[in-house]
Amino acid sequence: MRFDILTIFPTAFSYLNKGIIDKAQKKGKLDINIWDIREFSKDKHKKVDDKPYGGGVGMILKVQPIHDCLVSIGVFPKRDEKTAIVLMQPGGEIWTQQKATEFRNKFNRIVIICGHYQGVDGRVSEYLVDYEISIGEYVLSGGELPAMVLVDSISRLVDGVLGNKLSISGEPYLNNIVKSAPIYTTPRNFLLANGLVCSVPEVLLSGHHKNIENWKRSNTQNSNNTSVQNLDKTD
Ligand SMILES: C[S@@+](CC[C@H](N)C(=O)[O-])C[C@H]1O[C@@H](n2cnc3c(N)ncnc32)[C@H](O)[C@@H]1O
Prior knowledge:
Blueprint: E1 2-7, H1 19-26, E2 31-36, E3 49-50, E4 60-61, H2 63-72, E5 83-94, H3 97-106, E6 109-113, H4 122-128, E7 131-134, H5 144-155, E8 177-179, E9 189-191, E10 197-199, H6 209-218, E11 221-222
Parallel strand pairs: 1-2, 1-6, 5-6, 5-7
Antiparallel strand pairs: 3-4, 8-11, 9-10
């Protein structure tokens, strides 16, 4: 899977050079390219924003550097059907696990435009992009965090990115599960600063596989807020 991210803050993406996303890039499963929108500005001071026509507060990211970047990376005016161009937008379609799966299945190249300031010139969404996506009903100061949310949520669905296929099999939001059973590791008992000792549920230490499985099922909830009876046996 290839990602191209257009941003005015390229250094914000160092997160993508850590952990499984970094490993997946080194294994050739992901190809993540960060493009500095400023490099495409025709302004002699590399300015990428200007005041809004018609008045109003704040500055707007200009259409020209974004357009020229898309042309330069070969996704405008033509792109193949396996490529999607996405604008991060607080008022866009809300991102979900289902959409992440849909994108993973439909596309092999995803171009993401990160807005900033008061937003992006309206001609970008009108003429240049296929999707406007929001990561939630709140406003962030830039599209960089939202872009990383997309990259991470799609990448972990790409074959070979997670070391163990089972890692995603029992996750919430897959199979209508919204809350998976709590999980624990060492130590068995932990002393909190308020004097309470919190312990791992006994059943998980019992070695009794049937009881453990039942406990996991009854502590896993689906979207109707009921516990799940048919958990995947491999979980
Ligand atoms: C301060 S916001 C712009 C807010 C603008 N007034 C609006 O309502 O669209 C700057 C940029 O951050 C990004 N952004 C902010 N919140 C977001 C969200 N919830 N989901 C996706 N992108 C978001 C967008 O790229 C946006 O252009």
